[in-house]
Design a protein that fits this description.
The chain has 15 helices and eight strands. With 327 residues, it is of the alpha+beta class.
């Protein structure tokens, strides 16, 4: 998209020595920076920023189309590319410089706190959509607590990303104000991931990983008949109705059950992630309309760890988090 944008008056970040202060553009409730501004922010050259951005979009970590609009700016004869806050953060975790290190510290503290507290809204909305707000608040508090776990050390960016994606459910509150709320139609899939199919998928993955020496012979080795029972549970019915009727619910339970119930001697988290992605892909539910993965590899790794360290009593919260990320 191309339109004229004026220079903002919002300072997102200032280095500890106060030598760098970035004025940014505010649009659609987030901030946008040019490549020159990102290079200045991290104290490096623009070619390095270009390289990191290309890798971020090439790997599918972020969707380029939705994160890089072109806007007309004063004193420029052609539109200029602006990069979203998500892209700036992603670059910040790749650049090797003192300023980038300072930014990472700031991002995982100041920005994280902002996101955690950023769901505060006016009293009218709270009263009108209390249940939705309480669900969001519960999820945010859950992610906040789990982010402190030692096994999640180094996963700060992924937790931030999950928080950002989940907080988008706040748009429901705005829709409620304007009476635009519509029933969210849950995905219905035709592909059935039964026990025999799951066995074949894991066998193929094991062959590939063992060949690359990334797994042992114990990877994917079944632990009794647990896998058969779990796959049956995904499609169980009560009074002729499926307990988990939607694609989102089935996918979330595939991920959760395999990680928590350990149907394999080794490789449960990886197997769960592979089957989760395989199931969504076969049901044509893995990508958004813009071609971006609903949950990228980094986010999926963080989710797997969150499930692994969670208490069984927290199952419903995790299932809600996963299903909302997939909608």
């Amino acid at each position: 998209m191309e339109k004229e944008i004026k220079k903002g008056e919002i300072v997102i970040y200032q280095t500890p020595d106060k030598k760098v202060k970035i004025d940014v553009s505010l649009e659609n409730e987030t901030i946008w920076l040019t490549q020159d501004q990102i290079a200045l922010l991290f104290g490096t050259q623009r070619p390095a920023i270009t390289k990191h951005l290309n890798n971020i979009f090439k790997s599918g970590e972020l969707d380029e189309k939705s994160n890089v609009p072109k806007w007309n700016v004063p004193n420029s004869d052609k539109p200029v590319k602006f990069y979203s806050l998500d892209a700036v953060i992603a670059v910040g975790y790749r650049v090797n410089s003192k300023r980038a290190t300072q930014f990472r510290i700031w991002a995982t503290n100041t920005l994280k706190n902002y996101l955690l507290k950023g769901y505060v809204i006016n009293e009218k909305r709270l009263l009108e959509a209390e249940s939705k707000f309480e669900e969001l608040k519960s999820a945010v508090e859950f992610l906040k607590q789990k982010s402190k776990h030692e096994l999640l050390a180094g996963q700060e960016q992924e937790i931030l990303s999950l928080l950002g994606d989940y907080s988008k459910t706040l748009t429901l509150l705005e829709q409620y104000d304007t009476e635009k709320v519509v029933l969210s139609k849950q995905g219905k899939g035709k592909f059935v991931l039964d026990y025999s199919v799951a066995q074949k998928v894991i066998a193929e993955i094991k062959k590939e990983l063992v060949g690359k020496k990334e797994a042992s012979e114990f990877f994917g080795q079944e632990n009794g008949e647990k896998l058969k029972g779990l796959m049956g549970a995904i499609y169980q019915t009560f009074d002729k109705k499926e307990l988990y009727p939607s694609i989102e619910e089935k996918a979330a339970h595939i991920l959760y059950f395999i990680i928590k119930d350990h149907p394999f001697v080794d490789g449960n988290k990886r197997s769960a992630a592979f089957l989760f992605v395989y199931f969504l892909d076969k049901n044509k539910y893995l990508y958004r309309e813009n071609g971006e993965r609903k949950i990228n590899d980094n986010g999926l790794a963080a989710l797997a760890l969150l499930i692994a360290v969670s208490d069984p009593k927290e199952k419903d919260k995790l299932i809600k988090i996963v299903t909302n990320l997939l909608k």
